[in-house]
């Protein structure tokens, strides 16, 4: 499993469909109090994405936009048009979010597919926070795969067959990965200069990250990690911190603590089993490392996590 797949599998970044909007001009849609990241894909017509404090973004058919922090924003047929809240629109039409919503009167010219994403709060390795405030991928840079998935999403939304909710949520999970790929391939300069996400494409840091994620319980040393990716220890020691923003040992410890936190919350595995699976031969050493990272020893963390669910 590569590093991105590993983080996605553990980070709990999951999507849910907020709905499809069919809009007739003039129209305006207010999206506020978004729980997590907001995603919009324009499949027909044009729209303006307006976020306070930023220049407006003109969306064309096939364009996709992700707002990782989920700020209040509007989608409008033209800047300055009056807006209606998506929640009010759904209530007015007696529709649950996730269905088809009609905006404006007359023949719709614009169709927008909307979704939202949230990340597991137990995972400290950043992902959504590493992305730009508005991640806009124009249709010309989206690629065939992203376009095909958007078509599938639109088809599922319009058909509403049995099991549609499960299918739709899995499609938006795929869209998130494809959006990250398109962004990394075409506009990686927007990523922080030293972070694990932008380092995925680095010829030294990328393979090192993949090795750490493939076997986080291994007793990695600088020498063994460098040997596993075919570079010198000096090259690894220079390149990894420059591209990732942390040493291999520091990064691995953080990732191990994320894995441990998730297992303490979601499984009945004993602390000793978790410690050994993550490379700790001493349960005491694991307890100390976990307490430093999370502010609580493993047992108390598990108890608190269980009571908050």
Order of helices and strands: HEEEEEEEEHEEEHHHHHHHHHH
Strand order of the largest sheet: 9-1-10-3-6-11
The CATH architecture designation of the largest domain is: Sandwich
Alpha-beta classification: alpha+beta
Q: What percentage of residues falls in helices of 4 or more residues?
A: 40-55%
Can you put this structure into words, describing what you see?
Helices cover 46% and strands 18% of the residues. With 309 residues, it is of the alpha+beta class. Helix 9 (248-266) crosses helix 11 (283-294). It is elongated and about 70 Å long. Strand 4 (47-50) and strand 5 form a beta hairpin. The chain has helices at residues 3-11, 86-92, 139-159, 164-186, 196-199, 205-214, 222-229, 233-244, 248-266, 271-277, 283-294, 298-308, and strands spanning 14-23, 28-31, 37-44, 47-50, 57-59, 64-67, 73-76, 84-85, 100-103, 110-118, 135-137. The chain has 2 domains: 3-189, Jelly Rolls (Sandwich), CATH 2.60.120; 198-308, Homeodomain-like (Arc Repressor Mutant, subunit A). The chain contains 12 helices and 11 strands.
List keywords for this structure.
46% helix, alpha+beta, elongated, five-stranded mixed sheet, 18% strand, Jelly Rolls, six-stranded mixed sheet, Arc Repressor Mutant, subunit A, 309 residues
């Amino acid at each position: 499993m590569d590093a991105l797949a590993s983080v996605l599998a553990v980070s709990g970044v999951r999507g849910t469909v907020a709905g499809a909007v069919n809009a007739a001009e003039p129209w305006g849609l207010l999206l506020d109090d978004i729980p997590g990241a907001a995603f919009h894909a324009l499949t027909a017509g044009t729209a303006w994405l307006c976020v306070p404090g930023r220049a407006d973004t003109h969306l064309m058919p096939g364009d996709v936009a992700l707002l990782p922090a989920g700020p209040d924003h509007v989608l409008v047929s033209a800047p300055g048009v009056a807006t209606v809240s998506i929640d009010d629109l759904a209530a007015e039409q007696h529709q649950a979010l996730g269905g088809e919503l009609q905006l404006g009167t007359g023949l719709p010219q614009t169709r927008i597919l909307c979704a939202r994403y949230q990340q597991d709060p137990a995972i400290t390795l950043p992902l959504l926070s590493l992305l730009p405030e508005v991640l806009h991928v124009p249709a010309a840079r989206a690629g065939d795969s992203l376009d095909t998935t958007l078509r599938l999403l639109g088809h599922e939304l319009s058909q509403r067959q049995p099991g549609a909710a499960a299918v739709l949520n899995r499609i938006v999970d795929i869209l998130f990965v494809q959006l990250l790929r398109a962004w990394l391939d075409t506009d990686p300069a927007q990523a922080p200069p030293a972070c694990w996400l932008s380092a995925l494409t680095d010829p030294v840091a990328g393979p090192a990250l993949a090795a750490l994620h493939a076997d986080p319980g291994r007793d990695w040393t600088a020498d063994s990690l460098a040997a596993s990716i075919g570079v010198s220890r000096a090259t690894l020691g220079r390149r990894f911190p420059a591209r990732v923003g942390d040493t291999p040992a520091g990064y691995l410890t953080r990732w191990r603590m994320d894995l441990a936190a998730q297992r303490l919350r979601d499984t009945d595995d004993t602390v000793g089993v978790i410690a050994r699976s993550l490379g700790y031969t001493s349960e005491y050493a694991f307890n100390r490392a976990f307490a430093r990272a999370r502010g609580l020893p493993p047992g108390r963390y598990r108890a608190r996590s269980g009571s908050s669910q």
